[in-house]
Glutathione S-transferase
Amino acid sequence: MLKILGKKTSINVRKVLWTCEEAGIDYLQEDYGSGFASTQTATFKALNPNALVPVMMDGEFVLWESNSICRYVARKAIRVDLLPCEPQAAANVEHWMDWQATEFNNAWRYVFPALARNNPAYNDKNAIAQGIVAWNQCIAIVEQQLRATGAWVAGETFTLADIVIGLSVNRWKMTPFDHPEVPAIDAWFARLNSRPAFLRHGNNGMV
């Protein structure tokens, strides 16, 4: 059984838990992070020197970085529907995962703590406005892709790309500011809501 270290409120932990359930992989989740067991101990840093969650343990094998863990889980379960074996099909899924981890995540770095968390340290109105523009530009890319596929992010079937981007879009939807109309995203989001694991770990009231 896999062990997942990280609190369930973490978007990156939820990404991994959702993947485990889609893949049919049993796991034991333990709460680590702010408000729970510390990630700043020598023991935890021996597992992940970044002192961040999630961390996955599969016997003696330890892995950190949420998207890498999602890939590992899909491969361990031999779920080629979630992550294909064929190079081009796999790359088509993975480039969306990498984009989510870099461009999409970076777009909300200022806006999210400012508007969703009401963090007083993030009170620069210009930075908030610029962040909203950048975040909406990423959303426009997802909207365009879903219009092109008419189904899921990487094509005709549900994959890991939908998991990682689904949580990011959920965060965008729940952060209070004026959102543009995104009919393709809305239709895709409705399809995600038919998946029990998404309701448990994605659209569950957490941002």
About this structure: The chain has a mean pLDDT of 97. Strands lie at 2-5, 27-30, 55-58, 61-64.
